[in-house]
Amino acid sequence: MVIGAKPPKRPFASDNSAGAHPAVMEGIAAANQGHTLAYGSDPWTDRLVEEFSRLFDTDVATYPTFNGTGANVLALGTVLGPGEAVVSTPWSHITVDETGAPERILGTKIIEVPSSDGKIAVDALASLDHLRGVQHHSQPGVLSITQVTELGTVYTPDEITALVDASHERGMRVHLDGARLANAAAAVGGIESLRAMTVGAGVDVITFGGTKNGGLGAEAVVVLDPDLAAPVPYLRKQYNQLASKMRFLSAQLLVLLRDDLWLDLASHANAMGARLYEATRKIPGVDHPWTPEANSVFPVLPLDVVSPLQEWSFFWPWDPEKGQVRWMTAWDTTEEDVELFSLGVAEIMGS
Questions:
Q1: For FRET with 311, which of 26, 62, 120, 281 sits at 20 to 30 Å CA-CA?
Q2: Are 211 and 322 found together in one domain?
Q3: Residues whose CB is less than 8 angstroms from the CB of residue 21 and which lie 6 or more positions away in sequence, other chains included
Q4: How many separate domains does the chain show?
């Protein structure tokens, strides 16, 4: 099958395929002036700590990191105790896409609980109660949830609050993988919703993503309970996430936080995700099992069209056996990209 339509300039492989926002590049260049002390003892990192506390409207402890996997390992290591396990879904990034890094580096076990939509239900925590107090079992110690989930669904603040309450009642801490937390905040209602689903819900530690939302390469571990932050500087060094020239990580995140650029970029990506869904949902042969809630779309296509469509404009498979794929929009996706891609999909489906 050959598609004659012009492919989009920006494919729908992933939001981390996008480049960095021009303002972020300008912020890095502005930080590249003269000398400053290393390892976070610089004005950019000092300001970043203040800005995150302002964002969450409370004192939080902020630690810039290089990447998402490292940030997750650091965040989990901050709240894990001896002999404790991490509870997550089978879809979670820490389970599927981090090459076992949390288990190898932290020496922990990840206990997967069933999930059909990427979310964890409160009842799933109760199903692990039989492990508690038995010396032959890893003890459920940390609940890790992803927001936006790996299936593109979004927890409401009330759902997260219920999970946190159930976890804390069991003596567990809660980690939120926020690689796409900006998209979740944009989907649910903005900054107040961000606060409600994190600080307000009682989450203990989050990873705040920048790379997938206009950054060049910067994430942050944000410890929402300052009482838990004491070991983080030492763990960050052990886990190879202590940047020497940290000002260049902090400068990126500062730009994203300035004037709520992080939220504007995520809102745009979400809007393009909704537009892509609307542009393709009526094409015969394209089945959308659910409506996207953020910036990822998971259609099911006939098996014989997946490879030719990928060759024309690349995207990642999701469930190859049934033809489910993932299309993702980004901060720089344009309406023209969506239109061109949908035309190509319609052409191959009609051939």
A1: 281
A2: no
A3: 214, 215, 255, 256, 261, 265, 331, 332
A4: 2
